[in-house]
Amino acid sequence: MGVNLMATIWGIEIFGPLIEQHGEGGHIVSTASIAGLISGQSNAYNVSKYGVVALSEGLRRELAPRGIGVSVLCPGYIRTQIMNSTRNLPKRFEGAVRALPTSGPFAEHINMIRERVSQGIDPIYAGELVREGVEKDWPYIFTDLEFEPMIEARFAEIKQGFDHIRGRNPKR
User: Fold this and answer.
1) 8 Å CB contact between 17 and 59
2) pLDDT tens per residue, range 66-113
3) Catalytic residues, which ones?
4) Which whole-number Å values give the CA distances from 63 to 9, 40, 163, in the listed order?
5) Distance CA 138, CA 107 (A)
6) CB-hemisphere CA count at 13 Å for 165?
7) How far is CA 71 from the centre of its chain?
8) So what's the pLDDT on residue 110?
9) CA-to-CA distance for 30 and 72, rounded, in angstroms?
10) Residue 27 is inside which H or E element, if any?
11) Average pLDDT, whole number, for the chain?
12) Cys-Cys with 60: which of 2, 70, 110, 142 at CB 3.0–4.6 Å?
């Protein structure tokens, strides 16, 4: 939560006022994940990424009248070093992060992600999409269509929730 959600909030708290102060408008891009729109096997991760999506959606409406655009990047698997992120861990946190398991179901899941990331989308291509998204003021920036069916299924389930109560008159 600290890295995925709070760092996003803190960055916006710092840079948002600076963008507004110069009076020339600007654009904020927050990185969520496709996991910010569909639930997976890691509830904490999904909650943090859903939070970034919700924050971005709300800020987009709030900041538009001030000439500040807001987009949320929801990438799928990008060929990065994310699976080796402990390489950036400050010395003061050594020992605070558990080593990843080397056997068992969770290790298998981690290895599957590691493989997907190694075959992922070129980060330069993702960066080009972000540039285009900023220039064209896209609310959502996606990197590929792989997860579109899962998002469509999620929205179909949400719509079905409304269909269950369609035609009823709520008591007030």
Assistant:
1) no
2) 999 999 999 999 999 888 888 888 888 888 878 888 898 888 988 999
3) 45
4) 15, 31, 33
5) 37
6) 7
7) 10
8) 87
9) 5
10) strand 26-31
11) 94
12) 70
**Residue 43 CA from chain centroid, whole number:** 14
- Rounded Cα distance between 170 and 165, Å, is 9
Cα separation of 43 and 66, whole Å?
A: 35
Query: Which tokens go with 125?
Result: 């291509």
**How much is the pTM?**
0.89
Those residues whose C-beta lies under 8 Å from the C-beta of residue 155, and which sit 6 or more positions away, are none
- Over residues 33-55, the mean pLDDT reads 93
Pairing label, strands 68-74, 26-31: parallel
Band of pLDDT at residue 56, cut at 50, 70 and 90:
very high
In the chain, the amino acid numbered 5 is: L
Q: What angle do CA 143, 147, 148 make, to 5 degrees?
A: 90
Local structure of residue 143 (DSSP, 8 states):
S
**How many other CB atoms are found less than 10 A from the CB of residue 126?**
21
Question: In the chain, where does DSSP find H-type helix?
Answer: 7-22, 43-63, 105-118, 123-135, 148-165
> What DSSP state is assigned to residue 137?
T
| Closest CA relative to residue 72, chosen from 102, 18, 114, 31 | 31
Nearest to 16 by CA among 52, 62, 48: 62
